[in-house]
Amino acid sequence: MKKILALLLITIILSSCEKDDICADESTPRLILEFYDVSNPSTLKSVLNLKVKGDGAPDFIVFNAALPATDPNRYLFNGNKLALPLKIDGTTTKYSLVLNSTNVTASNEDFLQFNYTSQNVFVSRACGYKTIFQLDSPVAIIVTDEETPESFWIQNDNINVQNYSIITENEAHVKILF
Amino acid sequence: MKHMLRFSFSICFVLLSFLGNAQEQTEIKNDSTVAPVKKERYGLRIGVDLFRLTRSFYEKNYRGLELTGDYRVTRKHYLAAEIGNEDKTVDDDQINFTTKGTYLKVGFDFNSYQNWLDMENIISVGLRYGVSSFSQTRNSYQIYNPNQYFGISPVIIDGTQFDGLSAQWIEVVAGMKAEVFQNIFIGFSFRLNRLISQKRPDNFDNLYIPGFNRTYNGDFGVGFNYTVSYFIPLYKSTVKINDKEKQKK
C-alpha cells in the first residue's frame, strides 16, 4: 500500500511540473560585428552615433528602447559590438550604416550586404526551430557606397570574417577596422 | 428432601446435557473450518481502456484504442499486457505535428490486496516493458526569433513525414481492479515511464510517443488508463492450508 501511495505521489508531482513551454534555449542568432581601430588593429574602437537600417525593414534599428518613440536618439548606436539580425527567409541581407549620423557634414553612409545560406534547426518543444546561417565563402560581405559617392568609412580590405558559421552570439563573426 | 434431591439431579442432568452439546458444537466448528477447501479462480482477463476510447470522441486531435489483458499465474502474480494504437496531433505554439503508431507493453502485476472470502479485487503494483513503432508528421513550425526586426517569422507549412521511428521504455504501474458484476471488472492504473532508447527523427524530436505519451526533458513520462474487463475463468486451484496458516501468523 505504501509503495502505491508513493508512486501516486510521484506521478502527481511529475504531472504538475509540466510547463516546459517557455523557450529558454538559444534561438536564432544575430550577426555580431566588432569594430577595431585601423591604426591599432588589436584595440576595439567605438563607432559614433551610428544609425543602422536594414533593406526592406520599416525603420532604423532601435538601440535605446528605453527612450520614447519620438526621441531620435533611440536609433543611435555608440559602441564597438553591433548585433545585426539576418533575414531568415532569404540569402542576402543588406544594411545601411550611417556613421556620425547626427552631423550633416561629417555623416558617412556605407552599405554592407551579407550573403549566406540558412538552415532551420530543431531546438526544443517550447522553442520549435531556430535558423542558423553560413556566410558565403569567399565573398561573404559586399561593401557599397551611397549614390552620391563619398569616401568609404568601411574599407573592403578592412573587413575580416572571423567565423563563417553563425550559430551563437557568443563570439564576433566579423571584425571591421576603421 | 426428596424433592430437593430430584431437583439437583435434574439440574445436573441438564447441565451435563449442555456440556455434551457444547462439546459437540465445538467439534462441528473445528470440522467446518478445515473441511470446506478454499478455492480460487484462475484465468484470463481481457479488457479495453475507456479513457483512450472516450478521449477519441471528445478530443478532435486524438484517436486511440488500447486492449488490456492479464493472466493469473500464481495467487498474487499476473502476467499482464497492453496493446494499443494511437493517432495524435499536437498543436503547440511553435510546432504542430502528428504522431501515429502502435505499441505493446508486457510485464507483470503483483496483487498486494488481501481479499475477504471469495472476493477477487486487486490492488497491484507492476512493471512493464514497452515498445512502440510509429511515424511523425511535422505539419508546420515557426522559427523562434526574438529579434523580429524584419517582421514576425512566418509559420512554415511543412508536412514532412518521418517513418520507421521506435522507442522502448520501462513502466512502473500502480492500479486497482474491482469486480462490479459477475466476472466484470472495472479498474484504473497510473503509470510512470522511463525511456530506455528511442530512434529520433532527423532535425526533430519524439515529442509524443504512442503508449508512452508526451515526452519530458529527462526521458520521463506518465500514463493513465481506465479499464473495463471481462474475466474468463479457466480452472480453480485450492488454496494451500500452509499458505493460510502462514498468513494468520
Descriptors for this entry?
heterodimer, A: 178 residues, mainly beta, 7-stranded antiparallel β-sheet, 4-stranded mixed β-sheet, 11 strands, B: 249 residues, alpha+beta, Porin, two-stranded antiparallel sheet, 10 strands, 20% helix
What do you see in this structure?
The complex is a heterodimer of chains A (178) and B (249). By secondary structure, chain A is mainly beta. Chain A has one helix at 2-16, and strands at 31-36, 47-54, 77-79, 81-84, 92-99, 108-124, 128-135, 141-145, 159-161, 165-166, 174-177. Chain A has one domain. Chain A has one helix and eleven strands. In chain A, strands 2, 3, 5, 6, 7, 8 and 10 form a seven-stranded antiparallel beta sheet that branches. In chain A, strands 4-1-11-9 form a four-stranded mixed beta sheet, with no helix packed on it. The N and C termini of chain A lie far apart (75 Å). The radius of gyration of chain B is 31 Å and the shape is elongated. Chain B has a domain at 37-88 and 100-131 and 165-195 and 210-248: Porin. In chain B, a hairpin with a 2-residue loop joins strand 6 (155-181) and strand 7. Chain B is α+β, with helices and mostly antiparallel strands and 249 residues long. Chain B has helices spanning 2-34, 50-58, 241-248, and strands at 39-49, 62-72, 77-91, 95-111, 122-142, 155-181, 184-198, 208-209, 213-214, 220-238. At the A-B interface, helix 1, strand 6 and strand 7 of A face strand 5, strand 6 and strand 7 of B.
Q: Identify the CATH class of the domain at 37-88 and 100-131 and 165-195 and 210-248 in chain B.
A: Mainly Beta
Average pLDDT taken over every residue of chain B: 85
* Total number of strands of chain B: 10
Major β-sheet strand ordering of chain B: 1-2-3-4-5-6-7-10
Helical percentage of chain B: 10-25%
Quick overview:
The complex is a heterodimer of chains A (178) and B (249). With 178 residues, chain A is mostly beta strands. Chain A is built from 1 helix and 11 strands, in the order αβββββββββββ.
